[in-house]
Amino acid sequence: MTTILRLDKVEKRFGGLRAVDGVTAHVDEGELVGLIGPNGSGKSTLFNVISGVLRPDGGTIAFRGKRIDGLEPWEIFRLGVVRSFQNPRLFRGMTVLENALVPARNQKGERLANAPFQGRWEPQEKRLAADALEILARNQLEAVRLNWATDISGGQMKLLEVSRTRMAEPKLLLLDEPTAGVAPKLAQEIFDGITALREERGFTFVIIEHRLEVLLGAVERVLVLHQGRILFDGKPDEAVKDPAVVDAYLGE
Question: Which of 164, 166, 176 is nearest to 197 (CA)?
Fold first, then answer.
């Protein structure tokens, strides 16, 4: 199986705190991987380092064999690494539908030479709008598609974050707590949708999630992070029986 993401001794320090402390791990193409651990274990920091929001202080990160540590976030995004945030980062002056359309790649209407000529960009704009509406419907956001992004619930904001990642034509999706703030039934539906996308489109996922009842039933491998280090790397059913994992996290 081809490795899509490889981390080798990755470090991130904040003063004397080692938030990410020599993490070595890999993710294979088409894999569905869970990243779990106690609060403050470094999970979101690791996502920030992979996606370029933060620069690593040591180690290397490779995506499809190309080193990406040190690249700008937009350069990493261009390669196909797409992430959501634990706290949704939406454009407040836009509707739900407009927010969903932002990540679409190579929009012809954004080019100065095309903008005055509607015929050059309108067909693509209609296709992208249809795609966005389909994705919003799958995430139960169709009814609020014309609402301002500030006028929807916190759970709906999380769903919009997930919807935007899908519009970005991702190769690797880093989802930071995609079910936070949503009802248990909807949380299961979100993970059912993630599993379906992996099967239909071959997407690769790494997912931070505290709702282990839905995560462990969906992923095929779990990385457990504790105090910035990988404590466990293996199958979900083995993770819940591992004494070190139970002591550090599951026993909380």
Answer: 166
CB atoms within 10 A of CB 76: 22
Q: What is the mean pLDDT of residues 24-47?
A: 94
Residues 6 or more apart whose CB falls under 8 angstroms from that of 202 comprise 29, 30
DSSP 187-251: HHHHHHHHHHHHHHH--EEEEE-S-HHHHTTT-SEEEEEETTEEEEEE-HHHHTT-HHHIIIIIT
Residues 6 or more apart whose CB falls under 8 angstroms from that of 148 comprise: 92, 93, 94, 95, 96
Using alpha carbons only, give the angle 33, 58, 103 rounded to the nearest 5 degrees: 50
Q: Is the pLDDT reported for residue 60 higher than 80? A: yes
Distance between CA 54 and CA 21 in Å, rounded?
Answer: 14
**Contact 107/124 with Cβ under 8 angstroms?**
yes
Angle between helices 154-167 and 118-138 (to 10 degrees): 130
Which residue has better confidence, 24 or 166? 24
Q: What is the pLDDT of residues 100-136, one digit of tens each?
A: 988 877 666 667 766 766 767 677 788 888 888 988 9
pLDDT at 117: 63
Long-range interactions of 211-214: CB distance < 8 A, separation 24+: 211/179, 211/184, 211/187, 212/36, 212/250, 214/179, 214/187, 214/188, 214/190
Record the tokens describing residue 47, joined without a space.
Answer: 């996502």
Kindly compute the dihedral angle of the four CA atoms of residues 91, 93, 99, 101, in this order, to the nearest 10 degrees.
-120
